[in-house]
Design goal:
This protein is 60% helix and 10% strand. It is α+β, with helices and mostly antiparallel strands and 474 residues long. The chain is elongated, with a radius of gyration of 38 Å. It is found in: Cell membrane.
Length: 474
């Protein structure tokens, strides 16, 4: 009979051990968007002359060869508060991973309980009362979770995936910080260029006002001509304050990005006269490189891996939890501490199994499976959004290049027309309104061209942001 019990127990343990790690083993699902050949294909916009399929450099801002921009981005990487938050989140997930891995190690507990008392209920003072005695109880217990069904292994797998997702989150913030810093720098420099253009128009108009007043005094003009010239001058001067505000606000953005207060930001750091802009073809790589490079794609994929591992954590609750334990100790009178007959010890497994409450476990499994479905949908959406952002940014930049070229032509023609109108007006060959109209057209096209140059600079940075470079450490 005893032999039968032993054999039955051995069979039960063998059957449990055969179960292995429960839950699905993670791999990127075949139906995921990232598995489609079209996702890794060359970009549609690569056909544009503005681009080439060469790999994107890790630190794309160095293509501008601007030491000030390089310095600002390095300062942002060192002191940006969003990066500090992301780093703290990463440290927290690493601590969670360490905690999960600690579950694999044996647990040791030590106890010591000295005391004093009497083991009889005879009243105090009675001749038969036993004396008070000092006693003790000390022991050491070691327990080890066998993880026969892989609950701890899946928890560690999930925590590891969460840590990798948090690292991708840090990389994503670095990409954003680099682009935001470059954009703020470009905005500040563009404002300088636009203010110079606007001031030039103001200076020319002031000369024209003086010329008109001179002609009026000489009897070759009218008072209304002077009023129109001064009105045009006031309109041109009105363009300067918003540009000055844009320039100052860009400095404040740079201060915040680099971890400084507005008072600490060196307002004389930026000596640029125009926004940095590449005039050569931009290297964009292809879809396959983008999918490997973008941190948000990596983050979404690692989140999916963690959600898949949690299915195994929930599934393990359907099975027994088995721990191996050993304890040794001594209990007795304090004046006989360590006596051989006071020693105790035990060794054996502890099996716990919550039955018949399998409904709660299956509910947790269903929740984990739904979470995995949601994580897969988010992963697919992240991939699709990345491809959309790159193609859109390439299209916007290419079409702005076309617009910029047209505006430059318009500006050159307007400058020629304005110059000729002034000469004709000076010799009385044309009327004042023709000159005024030519000057208005020149001011408008000059400002539009400068604004387009600023847009091109920000469009380039938006493209680099969409391409996802810049997270790599120095």
């Amino acid at each position: 009979m005893n032999s039968l019990k032993i054999l039955s127990g051995m069979a039960l343990v063998a059957a449990l051990a055969a179960c292995g790690t429960v839950g699905p083993n993670y791999k990127v699902p075949e139906q995921a968007v990232i598995k489609r050949p079209q996702a890794a294909a060359p970009f549609l916009g690569t056909a544009e002359a503005a681009y080439k399929s060469a790999p994107l450099p890790d630190h794309w801002w160095r293509l501008y060869d601007d030491p000030v921009l390089d310095k600002l981005i390095q300062q942002a990487f060192a002191a940006n508060t969003d990066l500090r938050v992301a780093a703290a989140n990463l440290a927290r997930t690493r601590a969670v991973l360490d905690q999960a891995e600690e579950e694999r190690k044996p647990e040791v507990s030590i106890s010591a309980a000295p005391g004093v008392g009497r083991s009889s209920g005879v009243p105090i003072g009675s001749p038969k009362a036993l004396p008070d005695k000092f006693n003790y109880d000390v022991g050491v217990r070691v327990s080890y979770q066998t993880d026969m069904f892989g609950k701890i292994a899946r928890a560690v797998e999930a925590a590891n995936a969460d840590t990798q997702a948090a690292q991708a989150g840090v990389d994503l913030v670095r990409v954003t910080v680099a682009a935001d810093t470059a954009r703020a720098y470009a905005d500040a420099c563009s404002a300088v260029r636009q203010m110079a253009v606007a001031q030039q128009a103001v200076d020319l108009q002031q000369k024209f006002v003086a010329l008109t007043d001179e002609r009026t005094r000489a009897g070759r003009g009218t008072a209304i001509d002077g009023a129109r010239a001064r009105s045009q001058l006031a309109q041109l001067q009105a363009a300067l304050p918003p540009l000055a505000a844009q320039h100052r606000v860009a400095h404040y953005r740079l201060a915040a990005l680099t971890g400084q207060t507005p008072q600490e930001m060196n307002m004389h750091l930026l000596q640029c006269q125009a926004a940095p802009r590449l005039t050569t073809q931009i290297p964009v790589g292809d879809g396959a490189a983008l999918l490997r490079r973008r941190p948000d794609i990596r983050q979404a994929e690692r989140t999916l891996a963690g959600a898949t591992a949690r299915i195994g954590v929930a599934t393990a609750d359907l099975y027994p939890s088995i721990s191996l334990g050993a304890s040794v100790g001594s209990t007795g009178l304090l004046d006989h501490f360590g006596a051989a007959n006071a020693t105790r010890w035990s060794l054996g497994p502890l099996i716990s199994w919550t039955l018949p409450d399998s409904g709660s476990a299956r509910s947790r499994i269903a929740q984990a499976e739904a979470g995995t479905d949601g994580a897969l949908a988010k992963f697919d959406g992240t991939v699709l959004n990345a491809l959309k952002e790159v193609e859109s940014a390439m299209t916007v930049y290419a079409r702005e290049l076309d617009r910029n070229a047209a505006l430059k032509t318009a500006r050159d023609e307007s400058a020629l027309a304005s110059e000729q109108s002034h000469r004709l007006y000076q010799y009385g060959r044309t009327d004042f309104l023709s000159v005024l109209d030519a000057d208005r057209t020149l001011a408008a096209t000059d400002a539009a061209w400068a604004a387009s140059d600023a847009t091109l600079a920000t469009d380039q940075i938006a493209l680099f942001l969409a391409l996802g470079g810049g997270w790599q450490q120095q």
